[in-house]
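Per your request, structure below.
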Protein backbone atom coordinates (compact mmCIF):
# COMPACT_ATOMS: atom_id res chain seq x y z
CA UNK A 1 0.00 0.00 0.00
CA UNK A 2 1.31 3.47 -0.81
CA UNK A 3 2.03 6.05 1.87
CA UNK A 4 -0.98 8.11 0.71
CA UNK A 5 -3.27 5.10 1.04
CA UNK A 6 -1.90 4.32 4.51
CA UNK A 7 -2.56 7.90 5.58
CA UNK A 8 -6.09 7.91 4.17
CA UNK A 9 -6.89 4.81 6.18
CA UNK A 10 -6.07 6.27 9.57
CA UNK A 11 -8.15 8.00 12.22
CA UNK A 12 -6.43 8.88 15.48
CA UNK A 13 -8.61 10.14 18.29
CA UNK A 14 -9.26 10.16 22.04
CA UNK A 15 -12.39 9.89 24.14
CA UNK A 16 -12.72 12.56 26.77
CA UNK A 17 -15.22 12.65 29.58
CA UNK A 18 -15.75 13.55 33.19
CA UNK A 19 -15.17 10.39 35.27
CA UNK A 20 -18.22 8.09 35.26
CA UNK A 21 -19.83 9.49 32.13
CA UNK A 22 -19.09 6.20 30.33
CA UNK A 23 -15.72 6.53 28.61
CA UNK A 24 -14.57 3.02 29.49
CA UNK A 25 -17.90 1.53 28.47
CA UNK A 26 -17.89 3.34 25.15
CA UNK A 27 -14.26 2.35 24.50
CA UNK A 28 -15.18 -1.25 25.07
CA UNK A 29 -18.10 -1.11 22.67
CA UNK A 30 -15.94 0.48 19.98
CA UNK A 31 -13.40 -2.30 20.43
CA UNK A 32 -16.16 -4.88 20.14
CA UNK A 33 -17.20 -3.39 16.81
CA UNK A 34 -13.62 -3.39 15.66
CA UNK A 35 -13.36 -7.07 16.57
CA UNK A 36 -10.46 -6.13 18.83
CA UNK A 37 -12.08 -7.83 21.79
CA UNK A 38 -14.64 -10.57 21.90
CA UNK A 39 -16.35 -10.13 25.22
CA UNK A 40 -17.74 -7.29 27.24
CA UNK A 41 -15.79 -6.53 30.40
CA UNK A 42 -12.42 -7.01 28.71
CA UNK A 43 -11.40 -3.39 28.98
CA UNK A 44 -10.01 -2.45 32.34
CA UNK A 45 -11.31 0.82 33.59
CA UNK A 46 -8.44 3.16 34.32
CA UNK A 47 -10.73 4.92 36.69
CA UNK A 48 -9.57 4.89 40.28
CA UNK A 49 -12.35 3.60 42.45
CA UNK A 50 -13.18 5.39 45.67
CA UNK A 51 -11.64 2.73 47.87
CA UNK A 52 -8.23 3.34 46.34
CA UNK A 53 -8.55 7.03 45.59
CA UNK A 54 -5.87 8.04 48.08
CA UNK A 55 -3.72 4.99 47.54
CA UNK A 56 -1.41 6.22 44.84
CA UNK A 57 0.62 2.98 44.76
CA UNK A 58 -2.52 1.30 43.60
CA UNK A 59 -3.02 4.07 41.12
CA UNK A 60 0.49 3.67 39.74
CA UNK A 61 -0.14 -0.04 39.41
CA UNK A 62 -3.27 0.72 37.48
CA UNK A 63 -1.38 3.19 35.38
CA UNK A 64 1.07 0.36 34.70
CA UNK A 65 -1.77 -1.78 33.48
CA UNK A 66 -3.00 1.08 31.43
CA UNK A 67 0.22 1.19 29.39
CA UNK A 68 -1.21 -1.73 27.49
CA UNK A 69 -4.35 0.20 26.80
CA UNK A 70 -2.66 3.55 26.20
CA UNK A 71 -3.30 3.18 22.52
CA UNK A 72 -5.86 0.80 21.17
CA UNK A 73 -5.60 0.14 17.47
CA UNK A 74 -8.28 -1.66 15.53
CA UNK A 75 -9.72 -1.90 12.05
CA UNK A 76 -13.29 -1.07 11.25
CA UNK A 77 -14.64 -1.15 7.69
CA UNK A 78 -11.11 -0.89 6.31
CA UNK A 79 -10.23 2.09 8.47
CA UNK A 80 -7.34 1.79 10.92
CA UNK A 81 -8.52 3.44 14.10
CA UNK A 82 -6.07 4.49 16.80
CA UNK A 83 -7.89 5.25 20.01
CA UNK A 84 -5.73 6.95 22.62
CA UNK A 85 -6.67 6.40 26.22
CA UNK A 86 -6.73 9.28 28.67
CA UNK A 87 -6.36 8.86 32.42
CA UNK A 88 -9.59 8.76 34.37
CA UNK A 89 -8.19 10.44 37.47
CA UNK A 90 -8.26 14.21 37.40
CA UNK A 91 -4.90 14.46 39.18
CA UNK A 92 -3.42 13.18 35.95
CA UNK A 93 -5.17 15.79 33.82
CA UNK A 94 -1.85 17.03 32.48
CA UNK A 95 -1.34 13.57 30.90
CA UNK A 96 -4.68 13.99 29.19
CA UNK A 97 -3.83 17.47 27.92
CA UNK A 98 -0.70 16.10 26.32
CA UNK A 99 -2.47 13.12 24.83
CA UNK A 100 -4.81 15.56 23.14
CA UNK A 101 -1.83 17.03 21.27
CA UNK A 102 -1.33 13.66 19.57
CA UNK A 103 -4.84 13.13 18.21
CA UNK A 104 -6.66 14.50 15.19
CA UNK A 105 -10.12 14.54 16.75
CA UNK A 106 -12.00 13.64 19.92
CA UNK A 107 -15.26 12.08 21.00
CA UNK A 108 -16.69 13.69 24.09
CA UNK A 109 -19.01 11.67 26.31
CA UNK A 110 -21.61 13.48 28.39
CA UNK A 111 -23.89 11.88 30.95
CA UNK A 112 -27.47 12.91 30.13
CA UNK A 113 -28.37 12.97 33.82
CA UNK A 114 -25.46 15.12 34.95
CA UNK A 115 -24.92 17.28 31.89
CA UNK A 116 -21.63 19.08 31.32
CA UNK A 117 -19.25 18.54 34.23
CA UNK A 118 -16.12 20.38 35.25
CA UNK A 119 -13.50 18.01 33.84
CA UNK A 120 -15.20 18.12 30.46
CA UNK A 121 -15.03 21.89 30.49
CA UNK A 122 -11.29 21.86 31.13
CA UNK A 123 -10.63 19.27 28.45
CA UNK A 124 -12.72 21.16 25.96
CA UNK A 125 -10.60 24.27 26.57
CA UNK A 126 -7.57 22.30 25.46
CA UNK A 127 -9.41 21.07 22.36
CA UNK A 128 -10.42 24.59 21.53
CA UNK A 129 -6.83 25.82 21.69
CA UNK A 130 -6.03 23.45 18.87
CA UNK A 131 -9.36 23.64 17.03
CA UNK A 132 -9.67 19.89 17.45
CA UNK A 133 -12.85 18.53 15.83
CA UNK A 134 -15.22 17.15 18.47
CA UNK A 135 -18.10 14.70 18.22
CA UNK A 136 -20.37 14.70 21.23
CA UNK A 137 -22.01 11.50 22.51
CA UNK A 138 -24.77 12.06 25.03
CA UNK A 139 -24.87 8.86 27.03
CA UNK A 140 -27.17 6.92 29.38
CA UNK A 141 -30.41 7.65 27.57
CA UNK A 142 -31.85 4.59 29.29
CA UNK A 143 -31.93 6.77 32.42
CA UNK A 144 -34.27 9.61 33.22
CA UNK A 145 -32.01 12.41 32.10
CA UNK A 146 -32.32 16.07 31.38
CA UNK A 147 -34.33 17.51 28.53
CA UNK A 148 -32.29 17.11 25.32
CA UNK A 149 -32.76 20.76 24.33
CA UNK A 150 -31.44 21.85 27.74
CA UNK A 151 -28.48 19.55 27.36
CA UNK A 152 -27.60 21.00 23.98
CA UNK A 153 -27.92 24.54 25.32
CA UNK A 154 -25.66 23.66 28.21
CA UNK A 155 -23.03 22.19 25.88
CA UNK A 156 -23.08 25.36 23.80
CA UNK A 157 -22.90 27.60 26.83
CA UNK A 158 -20.42 25.83 29.05
CA UNK A 159 -18.19 24.39 26.36
CA UNK A 160 -18.39 27.38 24.12
CA UNK A 161 -18.95 25.44 20.91
CA UNK A 162 -21.91 25.33 18.56
CA UNK A 163 -23.69 22.01 18.34
CA UNK A 164 -25.64 20.24 15.63
CA UNK A 165 -27.65 17.16 16.63
CA UNK A 166 -27.27 14.37 14.08
CA UNK A 167 -29.54 12.07 16.00
CA UNK A 168 -32.51 12.76 18.22
CA UNK A 169 -33.84 10.70 21.15
CA UNK A 170 -37.38 9.41 21.29
CA UNK A 171 -38.27 9.46 24.97
CA UNK A 172 -35.83 8.83 27.78
CA UNK A 173 -35.35 6.53 30.75
CA UNK A 174 -38.13 3.94 31.00
CA UNK A 175 -39.89 5.48 28.01
CA UNK A 176 -36.80 5.49 25.80
CA UNK A 177 -37.77 4.18 22.40
CA UNK A 178 -34.72 4.87 20.32
CA UNK A 179 -33.13 7.58 18.24
CA UNK A 180 -33.87 9.08 14.88
CA UNK A 181 -30.77 9.67 12.77
CA UNK A 182 -31.25 13.08 11.23
CA UNK A 183 -28.23 12.67 8.99
CA UNK A 184 -29.24 9.40 7.39
CA UNK A 185 -32.99 9.77 8.01
CA UNK A 186 -33.15 6.42 9.71
CA UNK A 187 -34.95 5.24 12.79
CA UNK A 188 -33.03 3.18 15.29
CA UNK A 189 -35.25 1.39 17.80
CA UNK A 190 -33.95 0.67 21.27
CA UNK A 191 -33.73 -2.82 22.67
CA UNK A 192 -31.66 -3.05 25.83
CA UNK A 193 -28.85 -5.49 25.21
CA UNK A 194 -25.17 -5.51 25.89
CA UNK A 195 -24.37 -8.03 23.21
CA UNK A 196 -25.96 -6.47 20.21
CA UNK A 197 -23.38 -5.86 17.53
CA UNK A 198 -25.30 -3.84 15.06
CA UNK A 199 -28.04 -1.33 15.16
CA UNK A 200 -30.96 -2.42 13.07
CA UNK A 201 -31.90 0.82 11.41
CA UNK A 202 -35.06 1.43 9.44
CA UNK A 203 -35.08 4.02 6.72
CA UNK A 204 -37.70 6.73 7.12
CA UNK A 205 -37.41 9.32 4.41
CA UNK A 206 -40.88 10.51 5.29
CA UNK A 207 -41.70 10.84 8.96
CA UNK A 208 -45.40 11.19 8.08
CA UNK A 209 -45.46 7.51 7.19
CA UNK A 210 -48.16 6.02 9.47
CA UNK A 211 -45.90 3.05 10.12
CA UNK A 212 -43.96 5.32 12.46
CA UNK A 213 -47.04 5.55 14.71
CA UNK A 214 -47.35 1.83 14.94
CA UNK A 215 -43.64 1.42 15.68
CA UNK A 216 -43.23 3.93 18.48
CA UNK A 217 -46.82 4.86 19.35
CA UNK A 218 -48.74 7.92 18.10
CA UNK A 219 -47.62 10.21 20.92
CA UNK A 220 -43.95 9.53 20.41
CA UNK A 221 -44.37 9.73 16.65
CA UNK A 222 -46.01 13.16 16.88
CA UNK A 223 -43.42 14.39 19.33
CA UNK A 224 -40.64 13.22 17.03
CA UNK A 225 -42.23 14.96 14.05
CA UNK A 226 -42.41 18.16 16.06
CA UNK A 227 -38.86 17.84 17.33
CA UNK A 228 -37.42 17.14 13.91
CA UNK A 229 -39.26 20.12 12.43
CA UNK A 230 -37.94 22.32 15.21
CA UNK A 231 -34.36 21.09 14.94
CA UNK A 232 -34.25 21.43 11.19
CA UNK A 233 -35.64 24.94 11.62
CA UNK A 234 -33.33 26.05 14.43
CA UNK A 235 -30.04 24.47 13.48
CA UNK A 236 -28.33 25.18 10.19
CA UNK A 237 -27.63 22.22 7.95
CA UNK A 238 -24.65 20.21 9.13
CA UNK A 239 -21.52 21.34 7.34
CA UNK A 240 -18.68 18.88 7.68
CA UNK A 241 -16.11 21.64 7.18
CA UNK A 242 -17.39 23.49 10.24
CA UNK A 243 -16.85 20.30 12.20
CA UNK A 244 -13.37 19.81 10.76
CA UNK A 245 -12.44 23.36 11.72
CA UNK A 246 -13.65 22.78 15.28
CA UNK A 247 -16.50 25.28 14.93
CA UNK A 248 -19.40 22.89 15.36
CA UNK A 249 -19.80 19.65 17.27
CA UNK A 250 -22.17 17.05 15.85
CA UNK A 251 -24.15 15.37 18.61
CA UNK A 252 -25.32 11.78 18.95
CA UNK A 253 -27.56 10.32 21.63
CA UNK A 254 -27.29 6.77 22.89
CA UNK A 255 -26.58 4.33 25.67
CA UNK A 256 -23.08 2.91 25.70
CA UNK A 257 -23.78 0.14 28.19
CA UNK A 258 -26.64 -1.09 26.01
CA UNK A 259 -24.51 -0.71 22.93
CA UNK A 260 -27.11 1.58 21.53
CA UNK A 261 -26.28 4.41 19.16
CA UNK A 262 -22.60 3.51 19.28
CA UNK A 263 -22.45 1.77 15.95
CA UNK A 264 -24.34 4.66 14.44
CA UNK A 265 -21.83 7.17 15.76
CA UNK A 266 -18.86 5.03 14.70
CA UNK A 267 -20.20 4.82 11.15
CA UNK A 268 -20.47 8.59 10.98
CA UNK A 269 -17.11 9.01 12.69
CA UNK A 270 -15.24 7.06 10.02
CA UNK A 271 -16.99 9.08 7.35
CA UNK A 272 -16.39 12.56 8.74
CA UNK A 273 -13.50 12.44 11.22
CA UNK A 274 -10.23 13.84 9.93
CA UNK A 275 -7.29 11.64 9.06
CA UNK A 276 -3.73 12.63 10.02
CA UNK A 277 -3.45 16.39 9.73
CA UNK A 278 -0.54 18.67 8.88
CA UNK A 279 1.35 19.89 11.92
CA UNK A 280 3.24 23.02 12.76
CA UNK A 281 6.93 23.11 13.62
CA UNK A 282 9.09 26.07 14.52
CA UNK A 283 10.26 26.18 10.89
CA UNK A 284 7.32 25.19 8.74
CA UNK A 285 4.19 23.10 8.42
CA UNK A 286 4.78 19.39 7.97
CA UNK A 287 2.39 17.43 5.76
CA UNK A 288 1.75 13.75 6.48
CA UNK A 289 2.42 12.82 2.83
CA UNK A 290 6.02 14.04 2.96
CA UNK A 291 8.38 11.15 2.23
CA UNK A 292 10.67 11.86 5.14
CA UNK A 293 9.69 10.68 8.58
CA UNK A 294 9.00 13.04 11.47
CA UNK A 295 7.22 12.67 14.80
CA UNK A 296 7.11 13.81 18.41
CA UNK A 297 7.03 12.29 21.88
CA UNK A 298 3.90 13.15 23.86
CA UNK A 299 4.02 10.71 26.70
CA UNK A 300 6.64 8.77 28.64
CA UNK A 301 5.82 5.90 30.89
CA UNK A 302 8.46 4.88 33.36
CA UNK A 303 9.01 1.44 34.70
CA UNK A 304 8.28 1.41 38.40
CA UNK A 305 10.85 -1.30 38.96
CA UNK A 306 14.14 0.38 39.99
CA UNK A 307 16.12 -2.53 38.52
CA UNK A 308 14.83 -1.79 35.07
CA UNK A 309 15.11 1.88 34.54
CA UNK A 310 13.81 1.73 31.00
CA UNK A 311 10.81 3.67 29.92
CA UNK A 312 8.40 3.65 27.03
CA UNK A 313 8.18 6.83 25.03
CA UNK A 314 5.04 7.26 22.96
CA UNK A 315 5.73 8.76 19.58
CA UNK A 316 3.11 10.22 17.26
CA UNK A 317 4.14 9.86 13.65
CA UNK A 318 3.47 13.04 11.70
CA UNK A 319 4.99 12.39 8.27
CA UNK A 320 6.64 9.72 6.14
CA UNK A 321 7.33 6.13 7.11
CA UNK A 322 8.91 5.31 10.45
CA UNK A 323 11.26 2.33 10.25
CA UNK A 324 12.68 0.15 12.96
CA UNK A 325 16.48 0.24 13.35
CA UNK A 326 16.89 3.30 11.18
CA UNK A 327 18.88 6.15 12.77
CA UNK A 328 16.84 9.32 13.21
CA UNK A 329 17.78 12.86 14.11
CA UNK A 330 16.95 13.53 17.76
CA UNK A 331 16.62 17.27 17.32
CA UNK A 332 17.27 18.25 20.94
CA UNK A 333 19.87 15.60 21.61
CA UNK A 334 23.56 15.21 20.84
CA UNK A 335 23.35 12.09 18.68
CA UNK A 336 21.04 10.26 16.30
CA UNK A 337 18.86 7.58 17.85
CA UNK A 338 17.80 4.24 16.45
CA UNK A 339 15.16 1.97 17.93
CA UNK A 340 15.23 -1.79 17.67
CA UNK A 341 12.32 -2.37 19.97
CA UNK A 342 9.33 -0.60 18.47
CA UNK A 343 5.88 -1.62 19.58
CA UNK A 344 2.51 -0.88 18.22
CA UNK A 345 -0.65 -1.45 20.13
CA UNK A 346 -3.22 -3.49 18.27
CA UNK A 347 -6.32 -4.45 20.13
CA UNK A 348 -5.00 -5.10 23.60
CA UNK A 349 -1.75 -6.64 22.52
CA UNK A 350 1.57 -5.06 21.93
CA UNK A 351 3.43 -6.22 18.89
CA UNK A 352 6.88 -5.44 17.56
CA UNK A 353 6.60 -3.72 14.22
CA UNK A 354 8.99 -2.76 11.44
CA UNK A 355 7.26 0.32 10.12
CA UNK A 356 4.51 2.75 11.00
CA UNK A 357 2.72 5.61 9.26
CA UNK A 358 1.36 9.09 9.97
CA UNK A 359 -1.39 8.95 12.57
CA UNK A 360 0.15 5.89 14.21
CA UNK A 361 1.47 5.88 17.73
CA UNK A 362 4.46 3.69 18.49
CA UNK A 363 6.07 2.81 21.79
CA UNK A 364 9.85 3.24 21.88
CA UNK A 365 11.96 1.63 24.58
CA UNK A 366 14.18 4.36 25.89
CA UNK A 367 16.92 4.44 28.48
CA UNK A 368 16.63 8.12 29.28
CA UNK A 369 17.38 9.93 26.03
CA UNK A 370 13.91 11.18 25.30
CA UNK A 371 11.68 13.67 27.00
CA UNK A 372 8.16 14.90 26.42
CA UNK A 373 7.93 17.23 23.45
CA UNK A 374 11.04 15.84 21.71
CA UNK A 375 11.01 15.76 17.92
CA UNK A 376 12.55 12.98 15.82
CA UNK A 377 13.15 13.57 12.10
CA UNK A 378 14.90 12.11 9.11
CA UNK A 379 17.40 14.96 9.13
CA UNK A 380 15.75 18.33 9.43
CA UNK A 381 16.34 20.37 12.59
CA UNK A 382 12.76 21.38 13.27
CA UNK A 383 10.68 21.07 16.41
CA UNK A 384 6.97 20.34 16.57
CA UNK A 385 5.08 23.05 18.40
CA UNK A 386 1.73 22.87 20.12
CA UNK A 387 2.82 20.61 22.98
CA UNK A 388 2.81 23.21 25.74
CA UNK A 389 3.04 22.89 29.49
CA UNK A 390 0.09 24.41 31.29
CA UNK A 391 0.39 26.39 34.48
CA UNK A 392 0.11 23.99 37.41
CA UNK A 393 -2.44 24.56 40.14
CA UNK A 394 -0.66 23.34 43.28
CA UNK A 395 2.87 24.37 44.24
CA UNK A 396 5.23 23.00 46.88
CA UNK A 397 8.82 23.71 47.71
CA UNK A 398 11.23 20.78 47.55
CA UNK A 399 13.22 20.38 50.75
CA UNK A 400 16.24 18.11 50.51
CA UNK A 401 16.42 16.03 53.67
CA UNK A 402 19.71 14.33 52.88
CA UNK A 403 22.47 16.68 51.80
CA UNK A 404 24.70 13.71 50.91
CA UNK A 405 22.29 12.77 48.15
CA UNK A 406 21.99 16.15 46.41
CA UNK A 407 23.27 14.79 43.10
CA UNK A 408 20.81 11.92 43.12
CA UNK A 409 18.01 14.32 43.95
CA UNK A 410 18.88 16.59 41.04
CA UNK A 411 19.03 13.66 38.65
CA UNK A 412 15.81 12.15 39.94
CA UNK A 413 13.92 15.43 39.74
CA UNK A 414 15.21 16.04 36.22
CA UNK A 415 14.16 12.62 35.00
CA UNK A 416 10.73 12.70 36.64
CA UNK A 417 10.08 16.10 35.11
CA UNK A 418 11.13 14.80 31.70
CA UNK A 419 8.49 12.12 32.07
CA UNK A 420 5.98 14.89 32.70
CA UNK A 421 5.08 13.78 36.24
CA UNK A 422 5.09 17.44 37.31
CA UNK A 423 6.81 20.74 36.53
CA UNK A 424 9.86 22.13 38.25
CA UNK A 425 10.50 25.84 38.73
CA UNK A 426 13.74 27.17 40.18
CA UNK A 427 13.58 30.61 41.78
CA UNK A 428 16.25 33.03 40.63
CA UNK A 429 16.74 34.12 44.22
CA UNK A 430 18.26 31.43 46.41
CA UNK A 431 17.71 28.71 43.76
CA UNK A 432 14.71 27.37 45.68
CA UNK A 433 13.06 24.54 43.82
CA UNK A 434 9.30 24.42 43.50
CA UNK A 435 7.28 21.56 42.07
CA UNK A 436 3.96 22.39 40.47
CA UNK A 437 1.22 19.86 39.72
CA UNK A 438 -2.46 19.70 38.88
CA UNK A 439 -3.21 17.19 41.65
CA UNK A 440 -2.11 16.29 45.18
CA UNK A 441 -1.25 12.75 44.27
CA UNK A 442 1.81 13.65 42.25
CA UNK A 443 3.65 14.86 45.35
CA UNK A 444 3.31 11.44 46.92
CA UNK A 445 4.34 9.82 43.66
CA UNK A 446 7.44 12.03 43.39
CA UNK A 447 8.44 11.58 47.02
CA UNK A 448 8.18 7.81 46.79
CA UNK A 449 9.90 7.51 43.44
CA UNK A 450 12.78 9.77 44.46
CA UNK A 451 13.40 7.52 47.46
CA UNK A 452 12.80 4.26 45.69
CA UNK A 453 14.57 4.89 42.40
CA UNK A 454 17.17 7.56 43.27
CA UNK A 455 17.70 7.08 47.00
CA UNK A 456 16.94 10.75 47.64
CA UNK A 457 14.79 11.95 50.53
CA UNK A 458 12.60 14.99 50.18
CA UNK A 459 9.80 16.77 51.93
CA UNK A 460 7.38 19.16 50.31
CA UNK A 461 6.44 22.44 51.94
CA UNK A 462 3.24 24.17 50.90
CA UNK A 463 3.66 27.43 49.01
CA UNK A 464 1.18 30.18 48.67
CA UNK A 465 1.17 30.47 44.90
CA UNK A 466 -1.68 30.91 42.47
CA UNK A 467 -0.17 30.48 39.01
CA UNK A 468 3.09 30.21 37.14
CA UNK A 469 3.00 32.64 34.20
CA UNK A 470 5.54 32.50 31.44
CA UNK A 471 6.59 36.06 30.64
CA UNK A 472 7.81 37.79 27.53
CA UNK A 473 8.02 41.27 26.06
CA UNK A 474 8.84 42.84 22.75
CA UNK A 475 10.90 45.32 24.73
CA UNK A 476 13.91 43.54 26.20
CA UNK A 477 14.83 46.47 28.42
CA UNK A 478 11.39 46.50 30.01
CA UNK A 479 11.56 42.76 30.55
CA UNK A 480 14.96 43.05 32.26
CA UNK A 481 13.60 45.85 34.38
CA UNK A 482 10.55 43.80 35.34
CA UNK A 483 12.72 40.79 36.22
CA UNK A 484 14.92 43.02 38.39
CA UNK A 485 12.09 44.68 40.26
CA UNK A 486 10.07 41.49 40.78
CA UNK A 487 13.10 39.34 41.33
CA UNK A 488 11.64 37.56 44.39
CA UNK A 489 8.90 36.12 42.18
CA UNK A 490 10.95 35.18 39.16
CA UNK A 491 11.80 31.56 38.43
CA UNK A 492 13.02 29.45 35.50
CA UNK A 493 11.22 26.42 34.09
CA UNK A 494 12.89 23.23 32.86
CA UNK A 495 13.84 24.89 29.58
CA UNK A 496 15.25 27.93 31.37
CA UNK A 497 12.30 30.08 30.33
CA UNK A 498 11.38 33.02 32.57
CA UNK A 499 8.36 32.48 34.77
CA UNK A 500 6.52 34.87 37.06
CA UNK A 501 5.20 33.10 40.16
CA UNK A 502 1.98 34.90 41.08
CA UNK A 503 0.68 34.65 44.63
CA UNK A 504 -2.95 35.48 43.96
CA UNK A 505 -5.32 36.26 41.17
CA UNK A 506 -5.90 39.84 42.26
CA UNK A 507 -2.22 40.52 42.71
CA UNK A 508 -1.45 39.09 39.28
CA UNK A 509 -4.09 41.38 37.84
CA UNK A 510 -2.51 44.35 39.55
CA UNK A 511 0.96 43.49 38.26
CA UNK A 512 -0.45 43.01 34.76
CA UNK A 513 -2.08 46.44 34.96
CA UNK A 514 1.13 48.05 36.19
CA UNK A 515 3.31 46.48 33.52
CA UNK A 516 1.39 46.67 30.26
CA UNK A 517 4.55 45.98 28.21
CA UNK A 518 4.97 42.55 29.78
CA UNK A 519 2.98 39.64 28.42
CA UNK A 520 1.85 36.96 30.86
CA UNK A 521 1.13 33.51 29.43
CA UNK A 522 -0.60 30.56 31.08
CA UNK A 523 1.04 27.99 28.82
CA UNK A 524 4.72 27.56 28.03
CA UNK A 525 4.21 28.09 24.29
CA UNK A 526 3.21 31.50 23.10
P1 LIG B 1 -15.79 6.33 32.87
O1 LIG B 1 -14.83 5.42 32.19
O2 LIG B 1 -16.18 7.51 32.06
O3 LIG B 1 -15.41 6.72 34.25
O4 LIG B 1 -17.18 5.55 33.04
P2 LIG B 1 -17.55 4.01 32.89
O5 LIG B 1 -17.57 3.59 31.49
O6 LIG B 1 -16.75 3.21 33.85
O7 LIG B 1 -19.07 4.08 33.36
C1 LIG B 1 -19.47 4.57 34.62
C2 LIG B 1 -20.74 3.87 35.06
O8 LIG B 1 -21.79 4.22 34.17
C3 LIG B 1 -20.64 2.35 35.02
O9 LIG B 1 -21.45 1.86 36.07
C4 LIG B 1 -21.28 2.01 33.70
O10 LIG B 1 -21.81 0.70 33.66
C5 LIG B 1 -22.38 3.04 33.64
N1 LIG B 1 -22.85 3.29 32.27
C6 LIG B 1 -22.12 3.49 31.15
N2 LIG B 1 -22.92 3.70 30.09
C7 LIG B 1 -24.20 3.63 30.56
C8 LIG B 1 -25.48 3.75 29.93
O11 LIG B 1 -25.61 3.95 28.74
N3 LIG B 1 -26.55 3.63 30.76
C9 LIG B 1 -26.45 3.41 32.10
N4 LIG B 1 -27.57 3.30 32.81
N5 LIG B 1 -25.25 3.27 32.70
C10 LIG B 1 -24.15 3.38 31.94
P3 LIG B 1 -20.86 1.34 37.43
O12 LIG B 1 -21.99 0.95 38.27
O13 LIG B 1 -19.88 2.33 37.96
O14 LIG B 1 -20.00 0.11 36.99
P4 LIG B 1 -20.50 -1.30 36.48
O15 LIG B 1 -20.56 -2.11 37.70
O16 LIG B 1 -21.81 -1.14 35.80
O17 LIG B 1 -19.41 -1.69 35.55
Amino acid sequence: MSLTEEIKKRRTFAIIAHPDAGKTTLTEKLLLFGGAIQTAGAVKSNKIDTATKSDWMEIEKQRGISVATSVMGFEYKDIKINLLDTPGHQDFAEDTYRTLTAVDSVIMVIDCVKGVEIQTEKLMEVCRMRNTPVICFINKLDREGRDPYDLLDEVEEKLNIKVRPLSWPIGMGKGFKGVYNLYEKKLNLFTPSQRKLSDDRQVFENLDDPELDSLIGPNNANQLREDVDLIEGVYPEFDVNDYLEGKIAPVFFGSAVNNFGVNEMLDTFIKIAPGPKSRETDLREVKPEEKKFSGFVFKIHANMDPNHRNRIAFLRICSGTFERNKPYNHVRGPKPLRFSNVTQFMAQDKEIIDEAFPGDIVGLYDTGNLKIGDTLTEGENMVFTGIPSFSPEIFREVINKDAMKTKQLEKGLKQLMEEGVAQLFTFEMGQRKVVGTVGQLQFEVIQFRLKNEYNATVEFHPMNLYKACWISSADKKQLDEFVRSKNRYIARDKDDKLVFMAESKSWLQMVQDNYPEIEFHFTSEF
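The pocket of guanosine-5',3'-tetraphosphate is lined by residues 17, 19-25, 45, 47, 88, 139-140, 142-143, 255-258 (CB under 6 Å).

Regards,
D.
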